[in-house]
Amino acid sequence: MNRILILVIVTYVGLGVMLYLMQRSFIYFPTGAVEHRFDEVTFENDGVSTTSILLNKHLIKQGSG
Fold first, then answer.
1. pLDDT at 13
2. Which of 23, 29, 35, 38 has a CA that sits 20 to 30 A from residue 5's CA?
């Protein structure tokens, strides 16, 4: 029983140390605009806008706004 508990603790601490040391590779760094041939849509919220590629535009319902 003690061996299993020690193995679990060592594994837990080892994974924690590994994630700590590798955390820089998990950070998202935004990139500049990329030229492409796809349709785009812009979303705005509280004065901030985000542009995204428009997929499945045939599924969009045309509403009254």
1. 98
2. 23
